[in-house]
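thought: fold this chain, then report.
action: predict
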Amino acid sequence: MDIELRTPQNTAIVLVDYVTGFANLIRTQSITDNVNGAVALARMAIGYGMPLVVTVGPERDPRGTLYPELKQEIGDTPVVYRGGSFDAFGDSGFEQAIEATGVRHLVIAGLTTEGCVLRTSVGALQRGLGVTLVADASASTSQIGYDTAVGRLTQLGVSVTTWLSLAAEIQVTYDIEETAGVFQSVLALDPSHAKNFDQLYNALRLGADG
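observation:
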């Protein structure tokens, strides 16, 4: 079976509407988990040298500003401000940013799953782009809204993953030392995984040195 895996060369990461005003609205995961998912994806994009497109609503968005933790993580990465379009492709600046990545597959996550994440994913599909949804970095105002959105997207051909699974897919193996530190920094957002990684990575290094 011919399955194209995600790599830094063939994939862009797209973060949609991670704004503070959603903190009191999302019900399908904690705000901490949602923030960690967003930060993990940004850290992957920057650490592995992947194209990163970040978009929110209007510059003076009444729903609030970009998560402070995410803003800090992305540094000087430009944020694409758009109008009221649920589908981010409705904004020419966003479409140009996607075209500038030069890739044909988007990993998308954000808020809310049944709103702008779904509409932007459909917009990408309509343009012949492949889409992967990061399920545990996206959240909704209700479980039925989340489940329905994910179900609809998978019916349309969208792949679904988690941020840890995506990191492992991109890293491929512990033996690639050049990016092992990136992988470790992503796993640090989940302390249980970080501890296991440290133990295994140290054991592998000791074996190689021996």
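thought: worth noting. DSSP finds eight helices and six strands in the chain.
final: tokens above.
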